[in-house]
């Protein structure tokens, strides 16, 4: 029904049709607010363009639409803020820019490692935790985008129906193949809330290919980020993304505006002894951008990183913490292995060794287990 409706309303024979369903159509009829999430990338731009054309054809009021961008700060390409502004202007949308109050993406990585060191020092974690986000811990999406944009929209349009328009496509990755056309979003507007706020997300480009997206840009002269045009990246994300291919990381390193960020992230690798990606050091992506002293330090840190992993592998694996708590009390022999493994890691990071021997480790485990039992009462 949605595709047939779009085909009947839109006069762009070469463009792919935006996906729409009854849930979104009902929101249109109610005069909902539509918030177009712009990242500066090709998918959010093309999907917004197509969705706006469809909303126009459906008679939705233009003064109930905005563009919103979550600024990731230093982690962004330097050109991204101006690109987002240009896209919003081209689409005829007022732009709202939001950001995480506790610091940008780089600060989040730094804060995570600092917190991880303190928790490791207190034996609240079994292994030292590195600074970086990952496929299962995507801080950029969760904490710096969703957790910033969602509450802002819920506050700003309290009592309204709010549709967040997001440029996700099913063929981007296996994890997105089940992406629906729309879904209700109850994270920031619980069912039956006193204000009557209702939120949902809409993915108009869900069935499109990358060629479809680039075709829309070309036919409609939509702004396209320099990451694609000049540096030939396959995706736009943070300038250096923990999920990026080596091609995209190298392309980002070629951009002069990303040089300071590249060196800063390498410095975090060196300080933490954790590589930017599980199987790849960012320092190895563009070593020509590093000084001789940095390259010497990279070699030393790789040795230390291997030593840390070896030490932690010697710890009894069956005592690895589950949901932040040890599964059982270690024997004195097991506790001695833990104390021995921790000592050089603590020393390397300048942390105090509060549990230097088997008895101290065993007593700490007993305290942690008692606190768990108390929480469960």
Give an account of the 3D structure:
This protein is an alpha/beta fold. It is 47% helix and 7% strand. It has 13 helices and six strands. The chain has a six-stranded mixed beta sheet with strand order 3-2-1-4-6-5. Strand 2, helix 4 (80-91) and strand 3 (95-98) form a beta-alpha-beta unit. Helix 3 packs across helix 7 and helix 12 (332-348) packs across helix 13 (358-376). It is globular and about 75 Å long. The model has no long low-confidence stretch (mean pLDDT 94).
Number of strands: 6
Give a quick account of the main beta sheet: strands, pairing sense, barrel closure.
6 strands, mixed
- Average pLDDT, all residues: 94
Indicate the structural class.
alpha/beta
Proportion of residues in helical segments: 40-55%
Kindly report the oligomeric state of this protein: single chain
First CA to last CA: what distance? 53 Å
Strands across the major sheet, in which order?
Answer: 3-2-1-4-6-5
Strand content: 5-15%
Overall 3D shape = globular
Poorly predicted sequence stretches spanning 5 or more consecutive residues? none
Order of helices and strands: HHEHEHEHHEEEHHHHHHH
Backbone CA Rg: 25 Å
Number of helix segments?
A: 13
